[in-house]
């Protein structure tokens, strides 16, 4: 839960209001986003 907030992509109130499925989906989306950023940074 705090991982999403600490990423500064979601506010605490947004994360607190999420149901479990939405929370899991947001975590997966954050993983994909971080992976894409890492790939982009390696190309530089």
TrEMBL record:
<protein>
    <submittedName>
        <fullName>Uncharacterized protein</fullName>
    </submittedName>
</protein>
């Amino acid at each position: 839960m705090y991982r999403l907030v600490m990423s500064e992509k979601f506010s605490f109130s947004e994360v607190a209001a999420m149901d479990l499925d939405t929370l899991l989906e947001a975590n997966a989306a954050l993983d994909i986003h971080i992976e894409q950023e890492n790939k982009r940074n390696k190309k530089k």
